């Protein structure tokens, strides 16, 4: 089973840059996308590949956020929005931003999620932190219900120093704040695994680069895109990789995980 994840920074833009031609060569079973920046009527025909079931969560605001999940196998159930999965928390704010799709295949749940960024303001950082505190109990409940889980997404957090080039200069910046990294550790400690780091413990590999300066050319990046799995699913992972940064479909690179 091959699962590809990518923040496309606009599905129309990525389409124009050849994303779907590349995807057709990848033999993927599941594709998770974030930051569609489109509504239903704006999804290009090429972004509806033959042989895949397509499910979307669109943001109310035009040209903003949005996630998708594509699968060759028809899911047994699909849940659009966090409120569909969690009656114990108020998700109205995040569901208005189109951040969550879950597809269930038997006992396996695959999730495409786009965590909020806090880099624009203190207000948005507070939103991000409240999102994290609501999201973790949801993941724990899914796991306690006996489901196997694969969470794919742009999580806007570099967990460890190895996950970004300039960690010393970013310790007070959103995405590498101590409280964000501690939250990520709590998530992993609750029975989840960062698949890439599990398989590539010493790899200094990044998935996002700023558009400022020559960050991408110089590989001054952050690893903020993940496959995070329940432990049993992580044990089935046989490879994890990040697409060559020189293939530019967006400011993020697709990440790929293969499971036995």
From the structure provided, what is the oligomeric state, counting identical versus distinct chains? Answer: single chain
Strand order, largest beta sheet = 3-4-2-1-14-13
Q: Structural class of the helix and strand makeup?
A: alpha+beta
Strand content: 25-35%
What characterizes the major β-sheet?
Answer: 6 strands, mixed
- Order of H and E elements: EHHEEEEHEEHEHEHEEEHEE
Radius of gyration: 17 Å
Globally, the shape reads: globular
**Stretches with pLDDT under 50, minimum 5 residues:** none
Distance between the termini: 6 Å
CATH superfamily caption: Endonuclease/exonuclease/phosphatase
- How many helices? 7
Q: Which CATH architecture would you pick?
A: 4-Layer Sandwich
Q: What is the count of distinct domains? A: 1
The portion of residues assigned to helices is 10-25%
Mean pLDDT: 97
Q: What is the top-level CATH class?
A: Alpha Beta
How many β strands by DSSP? 14
Q: Using the coordinates shown, work out and report the CATH topology.
A: Deoxyribonuclease I, Chain A
């Amino acid at each position: 089973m091959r699962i590809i994840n990518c923040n496309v920074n606009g599905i129309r833009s990525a389409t124009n840059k050849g994303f779907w031609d590349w995807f057709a060569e990848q033999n993927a079973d599941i594709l998770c996308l974030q930051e569609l920046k489109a509504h239903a009527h704006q999804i290009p025909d090429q972004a509806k590949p033959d042989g895949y079931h397509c499910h979307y969560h669109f943001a109310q605001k035009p040209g903003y956020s949005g996630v998708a999940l594509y699968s060759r196998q028809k899911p047994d159930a699909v849940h659009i929005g966090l409120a569909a999965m969690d009656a114990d928390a108020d998700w109205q704010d995040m569901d208005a931003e189109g951040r969550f799709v879950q597809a269930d295949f038997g006992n396996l749940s695959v999730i495409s999620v786009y965590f909020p960024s806090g880099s624009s303001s203190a207000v948005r950082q507070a939103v991000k932190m409240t999102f994290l505190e609501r999201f973790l109990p949801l993941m724990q409940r899914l796991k306690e219900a006996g489901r196997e889980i694969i969470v794919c997404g742009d999580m806007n957090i570099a967990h460890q120093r190895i996950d970004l080039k300039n960690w010393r200069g970013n310790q007070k910046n959103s995405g590498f704040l101590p409280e964000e990294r501690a939250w990520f550790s709590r998530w992993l400690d609750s029975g989840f695994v960062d698949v890439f780091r599990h398989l590539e413990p010493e790899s200094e590999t990044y998935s996002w680069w700023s558009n400022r300066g020559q960050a991408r050319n110089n590989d001054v990046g952050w690893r903020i895109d993940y496959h995070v799995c329940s432990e049993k699913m992580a044990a089935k992972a046989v490879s994890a990789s990040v697409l060559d940064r020189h293939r530019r479909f967006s400011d993020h690179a697709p990440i790929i995980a293969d499971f036995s």
